[in-house]
Write a structure and sequence with these properties.
With about 375 residues, the protein is an alpha/beta fold. It folds into two domains: about 15-30 and about 40-155 and about 280-305, Rossmann fold, CATH 3.40.50.2300; about 155-275 and about 310-385, Response regulator (Rossmann fold, 3-Layer(aba) Sandwich). It has helices at about 1-15, 60-75, 80-85, 95-105, 120-125, 155-170, 185-200, 220-230, 245-255, 280-295, 325-335; strands spanning about 30, 35-40, 50, 85, 110-115, 135, 150-155, 175-180, 205-210, 235-240, 255-260, 270-280, 300-305, 310, 345-350, 355-360, 380, 385. The strands form four sheets. The chain has a seven-stranded mixed beta sheet, sandwiched between helices. Strands 4-3-5-6-7-13 form a six-stranded parallel beta sheet, sandwiched between helices. Strands 16-15-17 form a three-stranded antiparallel beta sheet, with no helix packed on it. Helix 8 (about 220-230) packs parallel to helix 9 (about 245-255). It is globular and about 60 Å long.
């Protein structure tokens, strides 16, 4: 396992400067014979884009994408209401193919989709429409395919989750955290592991229980799972799920919550400590600006906490533990300068295939170094999956 990690580290160093995490772009494309040709930008008033959302617009995850697109439009002088066509409640099934077709018919020059299961339909459509850019959040295929018009984008949200975990680790009294998780994918496992490791960095005695809903967005299941965790003694609940139900369940039970995608203080003022959020606007502004300027969009884009691609909502000053702000600021500085690695040894675990993780002191798993899509999928010591 050590050899595998070291190989990944070397691969990560070799890819510095490439497009894996926000490399430089150019307005030139390679023409036949090896020559380069300038690509024509799109006039601002002529730009139209599609946004495919997996659930309701009001769900925290989808709302975060909408707010990001609105912010990007405002920054670039575009009219969100007339230039962005939004498709909500688009499942990870053939309804996605239908939505893509409708957006193409509507004249969209770029289509963005926000859920992992949308990717196969984006990749299937892309070869038939080479002049349309297909941009997919949380996916992985564009990083390796030979299509110039497919793109993946994500952020190093595990950094923000690690910092949010610090707030939980300092607040817990039972030393048992609970986590409502959507699906057993690397994106989710990477996030909740980072949250746990952040908590453990300030509270070595902390452990964590995880409950899967197997749905991205289901308020009833999220509330049920949160309640089950509270009944097991968890006094801080966090989540990788799309609604505010874990936070409101924590509020009802007199325990605390760390949210995702949205500031939960308005719905759980006595429970919500802080939330980890992706700033999708950073990517949307970048990608739309590329379209306007006639520049190539990175094949695989990944932004960091230090770059503002992910962040924490305001701390709930009324209920956070003393020293929380200072501890988070110190850890954020360490992540930015590289002195803190989130997935650092000693760290032990196993993934669904039975592959073991065995990181010694001084070693670390290089998450997001070679792809924007998270890859850490080990259940580490100290975390117990209930269902």
């Amino acid at each position: 396992m050590k050899k595998r990690i070291l190989a990944l580290l070397m691969a990560g160093m070799l890819t510095v400067g490439l497009a894996a995490c926000g490399g430089e772009t150019s307005g030139e494309t390679e023409a036949p014979g090896g020559e380069t040709a300038e690509t024509a930008g799109i006039a601002a008033e002529d730009l139209k884009v599609g946004l495919i959302l997996v659930g309701e617009a009001a769900d925290a995850y989808n709302k975060n994408h909408i707010e990001g697109m609105q912010a990007a439009c405002e920054a670039l002088g575009l009219d969100y209401d007339t230039q962005v066509v939004v498709k909500t409640n688009i499942g990870e099934d053939s309804t996605c193919a239908d939505a893509i077709g409708e957006l193409i018919d509507a004249g969209c020059q770029a289509i963005f989709a926000d859920s992992f299961g949308h990717e196969q339909y984006m990749v299937e459509a892309a070869p038939d429409y080479p002049d349309i850019q297909f941009c997919h959040a949380t996916g992985f295929q564009s990083a390796a395919d030979d299509l110039d018009n497919t793109h993946n984008y994500f952020a190093k949200i595990y950094e923000a989750r690690y910092l949010a975990g610090i707030a939980a680790g300092l607040k817990t009294e039972s030393n048992v955290l609970g986590y409502v998780a959507a699906k057993p994918y690397a994106e989710v496992i990477s996030g909740y592991t980072a949250f746990y490791l952040g908590a453990k960095s300030v509270n070595p005695d902390v452990t964590m229980l995880v409950n899967y809903t197997n749905e991205w967005s289901d308020a009833t299941k999220e509330a049920t799972n949160a309640q089950a965790l509270i009944d097991q003694g968890c006094d801080v609940i966090s989540q990788h799920s799309d609604t505010s139900a874990p936070a409101t369940t924590a509020e009802t039970n007199g325990v605390f919550a760390v949210g995702y995608n949205d500031d939960m203080i308005s719905v759980a003022p006595n429970a919500a400590l802080v939330s980890a959020r992706i700033n999708w606007g950073a990517y949307y502004e970048y990608a739309l600006n590329c379209l306007l300027a006639g520049e190539a969009i990175d094949q695989d884009w990944c932004g960091s906490y230090a770059e503002g691609a992910c962040y924490l909502s305001d701390l709930n000053e009324a209920i956070i533990a003393d020293g929380t702000k200072e501890a988070i600021e110190a850890a954020a500085a360490g992540i930015a300068d590289g002195s803190i690695q989130v997935f650092a040894g000693p760290l032990y675990g196993v993934n669904a295939d039975g592959e073991e993780l065995n990181l010694a002191e001084g070693e670390f798993y290089p998450e997001n170094e070679t792809s924007s899509a998270p890859s850490f999928a080990y259940i580490v010591d100290g975390i117990t999956v209930l269902s």
